Amino acid sequence: MPAGMTLVYQDDAVRIYWNEQHSYYLSDWQPVFKKGADLRRAYQACLDAAKARPGAPWLADASKFAVIDPADVKWIEGWFWPEFIRAGAVYEAAVPPEKEVSKMSANRSVEKMLKGGGFEITVHATRAEAEAAVIAWRKKNGAAE
Question: What is the pTM of this model?
């Protein structure tokens, strides 16, 4: 477990941690192919965490992310992102998938979600860069450390 982190949720697809020092969530996506109900459970865990701490920023490390089934991409775009934002999520620093095919499905999903507004996402090459962005976002938005 990363230092200063509390494990909030774990399954084969994702591990969700809460960073005690900087008050943000880390979703650490695993290199497994999941689809349907199995994948949706992982996304539901993100949604539940967002509801528990509305306004908390997220660091989503999808660097090891597996490809997403097209039916699941539609579900993520049409149901998950709107619900995630309704739950109080406002900012995510993302480390995109390394695999090109995974990157394409992730990018499509994010592009559609950003058109709706009310949510900000930044993309970073490494988890360290993404963490620096989360900390900077918290400072800019007046969150106490």
Answer: 0.85
